[in-house]
Structure formats: structure tokens, C-alpha cells
């Protein structure tokens, strides 16, 4: 029954929300969000470490290692988190876009270019399927990203408190 509705869909294959979701889920950057918590956190720590490579020399110019090691460590850790924040923002925006395309009852699509856009109303069976995907697969991913943001804010607050105590 779903297949017959999909075959009548005027939206080009690459612009159909389900295909966009599958493509996003398999892309190298976004698939990390679907990993287990342990693997996901490991990837985030790797991203932080790579960002730290760029942040540490900047922190060293303000807080020389031999004079102020604790402030150097805190400022380089905070600077390293900038890369993680940018990464998480990109992940959140990508998954939010797919969530809105799947959840929406009407899909905007372009047939051959930006000048000939159209809207297509999803049949109820397609809409139900897409909303189930949002509920059971995309919402947990967005919650994970939000929770990671909250963890970073908590670490930043803890680092600020330690900074004030030094």
C-alpha cells in the first residue's frame, strides 16, 4: 500500500524526505550520531582533541606554560570546545532539517531548478510512516545532541568556577 503512494509521488527521488534521511544517516559526519553512547562520546572527544591542537597554541600565547599552567589548561580546553560546539551545531541543524521534512504534511520540491518549485501533500500512509521515523529515530538523535550541549555547558561552568578559584 505504501509503495503505490511512493510511485505516484511527483517529488524527485533525491528530494524525497525518506531518501534524504537515508542519505544523511549514511553520510560520514551524521552517522556518528546513530552510534552507541560510548562510540558517540569517543567521536566527540576525538573532535575535541583535534580542535585542541589549534586552541592550545593560542592559549599558550596568553598563558605561558612555565608561568601559568592551570590557566593555560583551562583556556585551551575551552578553546578546544569551540570546534565541538561548531560540530554539534552542524549535526543539530542537519538532523532538524530532515525532521522538519519528514514531519511536514506538505513537501516543497524543485523539478529542474530554483525557479519552478512545487508543493506536494503527502498521503496519510506516507505521513504516518515519516512521523514514526521522526519519533523513533530522529528525536532520540536530537535529544542526544542536546544532552551533549548541556554537558558542554556544565563543563564550561565547572571550568569557570575553577578559573575563579585559581
List the defining traits of the structure above:
two-stranded antiparallel ribbon; mainly alpha; DUF1230 domain-containing protein
Secondary structure: elements and pairs:
Blueprint: H1 2-7, H2 17-26, H3 37-62, H4 69-103, E1 106-110, E2 117-121, H5 124-165
Antiparallel strand pairs: 1-2
Give an account of the 3D structure:
The chain is mainly α and 166 residues long. It has one domain. It contains 5 helices and 2 strands. The protein has helices spanning 2-7, 17-26, 37-62, 69-103, 124-165; strands at 106-110, 117-121. The chain has a two-stranded antiparallel sheet. Strand 1 and strand 2 form a beta hairpin. Helix 3 (37-62) crosses helix 4 and helix 4 (69-103) runs antiparallel to helix 5 (124-165). The model is unreliable at 1-5 (pLDDT under 50).
Please describe the biggest sheet, giving its number of strands, its sense, and whether it closes into a barrel. Answer: 2 strands, antiparallel
Give the overall pLDDT as a whole number: 91
Number of strands: 2
Strand content: 5-15%
> What is the helix content?
over 70%
Termini separation (Å)? 66 Å
Cα radius of gyration in angstroms: 21 Å
Number of helices: 5
Can you list the strand order of the major beta sheet?
1-2
**Poorly predicted parts:** 1-5
Structural class: mainly alpha
Q: H/E series, N to C? A: HHHHEEH
Question: How many domains, in number, for the residues?
Answer: 1
- Overall body shape: elongated
